[in-house]
Amino acid sequence: MIGSFAAALLVASVAAAPAARAAQAKDPEAPAHTGFTVTPPSGAYVMGFHTCSSDCENPVGHTVRLVQSQDGVVWTDVVGWNPLSGSVPDVIRRGNTLYVIGAGLTRIDMTTGKATADFFKVKKADGKSALARDVSFAGQLSDGRFVVAYVPPMQDVVGAAAIPVQLAVEDVGSNGSTYTFTGTAISIGSTSLPVPGQPTDPDIFFNGTQWVLYVSVGANVVSFTSSSISGPYDTASATVVSRNAGGVPAGVQSDGGAMTFVNSGPTRDSLVIQRAVSATGTTPLPSSAFTTVLTGAAYGATTAESPGIARNTPGIECGTGCSGTTTTTTTTTPDKAGRPGSRCTTADKQGTWKGTLMVCKKVKGKLVWTRA
After folding, report:
1. Which overall architecture, per CATH, does domain 7-311 show?
2. How high is the pLDDT of residue 329?
């Protein structure tokens, strides 16, 4: 996620304050490298995060890392990943390409492992730069295009009665590089938050039945829900998922429930990434539910922070409405699927339910629809 440190994270207790996502000193939209090759990750989940060793309030010293995991607990480096000078990354996969943001855009070919760099830009409806903070991948539209979530620049929200979480959709033919504002997911007033502070660092994921929006409020995480990726997200659904247990959240659905990841640590320069699991990702989690899954020690750093996580599955292919090109080859549009947990008849068959790619799998001896 690309953004700037939020004043709201300067909470009274430094020990409780997580790292806020930050704008890099260099242009965070610019390509960050000239290319390299990795061993394509094969784990069920891929995570981008950054590390830091000192003066971590200053993003100049942040380094973007890429790791993979089969269970969300044990994480290993993606072999060949070139640590990048950048901050607050996020990841998503579409087809045979893994997309990583946080230092411009990196695309990884999941067959060859070749990593290439490009610009990453979010624009207003008039084409001007949105100066977006805390950008994260929210998911995909039915035509395969990505949706990103972010908050406006600080100068647009200072003194404002409410902070909007805004959405932008991938421009046709940009291959994940440029996005244009499409609307507001939710406008969060200070009086509607169950904890004091300013919402930052939005993260959106599908929990199997509904879309969940996380925001960080200091060392807290607050969730909102919607039936659609584009919202609106219901202010009445606000729930404190993490209360003083960590912020800067990321969520992802797993076969065992929703995994919630946060930053936590005694000081700004000493942070770890922790994980907890719940049925939906929208219920209060005690501090004891979180366990550490990543630290900076292996990298000679004092922090591991700003997790951005995705399932390592192809998702929805980039069709004509996404790529902007036509093809003479025959393509197959996924059939409609039932809601998660409902019965299906053909193993491994794919379909879509409310824009989410589903697959028919055997669970406890029965064929049911599950999220791909």
Report:
1. 5 Propeller (2.115)
2. 44
